[in-house]
Amino acid sequence: MSFFRRGWPTLPDIRLVEVDGRRWVVKDWRHRSLPRRLLQGRFMLKREYFFLRSLEGIDGVPRCEGFPDADSLAIEHFEGRNASVVYPQDYPRGFFDHLEALVRAIHARGVAHGDLDQDDNVMVRADGSPGVIDFGNALRESWFPLIRMWHDLLVRHDLQCVARLRGRFEIDPVNPNPAPPPDLLSWQRRVLVFFRKMERNEPVRVHGVGDNVS
Ligand SMILES: Nc1ncnc2c1ncn2[C@@H]1O[C@H](COP(=O)(O)OP(=O)(O)O)[C@@H](O)[C@H]1O
Ligand SMILES: [Mg+2]
Fold first, then answer.
1. Residue of 8, 10, 14 to test ligand 1 pocket, by largest number of atoms within 8 Å of CB
2. Going by CA atoms, what residue is nearest to atom 13 of ligand 1?
3. Which CATH topology does 80-199 take?
4. Residues 26, 32, 36: CA angle, nearest 5 degrees
5. Band of the pLDDT at 8, cuts 50, 70, 90?
6. 61 alpha carbon – ligand 2 mean position (Å)
7. Stretch 58-76: mean pLDDT, rounded?
8. Which of 30, 152, 158, 201 has the fewest CB atoms in 10 Å of its CB?
9. Which tens digits make up the pLDDT trace of 194-213?
10. What's the pLDDT at 28?
11. Mean pLDDT value across the chain
12. Where are the domains of the chain?
């Protein structure tokens, strides 16, 4: 067993676990305080479980195995690398088109990811295809007007993040300078940044994929 990341008082441990030759990522809140586990951990795990289940069958979204215990969640491990550590020349041709199609397929199931501005939530899998992970902050569409507005905003934000990744990393010999996509309005960006800052907790140390520290 190895760690992707040791937790922080406000974050779960993330472990890589191998069972019968298959690898799972386990998000584990067991070593956090009791109130944290009961009030935040279980809620976050159930949310992620719910989203992964509703996205089941989409190639590029990890399958969810379920709860090994009440405070952990087992998720299919994707072999590959986080987009944050891949050099532009190492992206396979067409990667960003596939990523955009993947994100649109997620949206078509009524789910906005909402956290794709974190490059490490996008993966370049071992076979070169894109993967999207970390659905803890996702949002399902709703008839309720405020939630619907927020969901629609996150849908646009997801696509914007894909476009930004494409702009930063895609080497396209045919069209080296594609027109930038329309940006969010400034008030929308400010609201989004405000909530992101409230949500974000920095871990003590972030280990790279596959770092084996225990
Ligand atoms: N299904 C997965 N396959 C491969 N690596 C994963 C997977 N899920 C998480 N990881 C690794 O663990 C890191 C943290 O997981 P993530 O779900 O993004 O947690 P957090 O909500 O803390 O950002 C990811 O950046 C990635 O390196
Ligand atoms: Mg993440």
1. 14
2. 4
3. Transferase(Phosphotransferase); domain 1 (1.10.510)
4. 110
5. confident
6. 14
7. 95
8. 201
9. 777 666 654 434 344 444 43
10. 94
11. 87
12. 2-76, 80-199
What is the per-residue pLDDT across 161-191, written as a single tens digit (0 to 9) for each?
Answer: 999 999 988 887 666 555 556 667 777 777 7
User: What pTM does this model have?
Assistant: 0.83
Q: Which ligand is nearest to the CA of 25?
A: 1
- Residue of minimum CA distance from atom 15 in ligand 1: 134
Please give all residues whose beta carbon lies within 6 A of any atom in ligand 1, as ranges: 4-5, 11, 14, 25, 62, 75-78, 82, 120-121, 133-134, 136, 209
**pLDDT at site 193:** 74
Output the DSSP codes for the chain: -EEEE--BTTB-EEEEEEETTEEEEEEE-TTS-HHHIIIIIHHHHHHHHHHHHHTTT-TTS--EEEEEETTEEEEEPPPEEEGGG--GGGSPTTHHHHHHHHHHHHHHTTEE---TTSGGGEEEETTS-EEE---TT-EE--SSHHHHHHHHHHHHHHHHHHHHHHHHH---SS-SSPPPPPPPPHHHHHHHHHHHHHH----S--PPTT----
Q: Among all ligands shown, which has an atom nearest to the Cα of 27? A: 1
Distance of CA 122 to the CA centre of its chain: 6
Compute the distance from residue 121 Cα to the ligand 2 centre, in Å: 5
Q: Which ligand is nearest to the CA of 117?
A: 2
Q: Which CATH architecture has domain 2-76?
A: 2-Layer Sandwich (3.30)
